[in-house]
Design a protein that fits this description.
By secondary structure, this protein is mainly β. The chain is 4% helix and 45% strand.
Amino acid sequence: MKLTKYLLYLITNLGLGLMTAFGQQKITNPVLNHDFPDPTIISANGIYYAYATNSKKDERLTHIQLATSKDLTHWKDEGDALPAGATWARGDFWAPHVLFDKQLGKYVMYYSAQSVSDTLGKCLGVAFADKPEGPFKDKGTPFLTGKSFINIDPCAIIDQATGKKLLYWGSAHQPINVQELSDDWKSLKKGTVKQAVIYPKVEGGYDRLVEGAWIDYYKGYYYIYYSGDNCCGPNAHYAVMVARSKNAFGPFERLGETSKNKTSVILEKNEKWLAPGHNSIFRDKKGNAYIAYHAIATDKAKSEGRVFLIAPVVYKNGWPKVIMP
């Protein structure tokens, strides 16, 4: 009874709204009911900023979509975070990852885009801004070039253990890699080499292709979230998997190596949503963790494209668990 009264007090007097059993806010999905794929969320100045893959809205193409929220439930479209695009790219501005560098006083955005060259495929780009809303300005040349879509889906971090700046990326039936970055974020550090951390075709099922890496550091572990194997189209077959390591460069232990069902999947389709994936992990002002991701509604009449969803995450027995409503 005392616990019930206390919860009622929190809801009615502190305006916290409905909470999960672990303290996170319950979210009504989708938080944006239009195409908003590959979402990345950061928090700055008391506001949540979400960035997403290019999409057309009101017949206008946005290179990198931007939305903001003060409460994680109500989101507002804010236009294009990369309005000028990049001179080296002609389209497919995908999968932005944004972080803040305190030493530089800059927000850094990595993203994927299609090269204007007929001999190259998707490339990685990097852009900078003074404010989280941008405008972000590309450095002027591709960060990393490549054929097909091998070099997509970037995730950059500052390693809490070493202070090194690191980039994770990869797709196209190749491994997800990590490599150290230069201090100014504009190139891979000279003298370093990329290291594979997650391989495809290990478990079968969803990992025939692996991509969409995201690193979350929690209680001494680097958790790498990744997605596979087909994000889009009529045969979309996508889910989020996870592995962990005590070292940012691995080796990473897959959840499937320890779980009874031998799978590393922590988020997959249900009766409402198909092909959930390409996530980011972020925390609210109290330190509670959430997963942001996209998915396709099973009822196509109620939703369009890969829409934007959020769910609470808890770490239990050393592994993350998504708390679904």
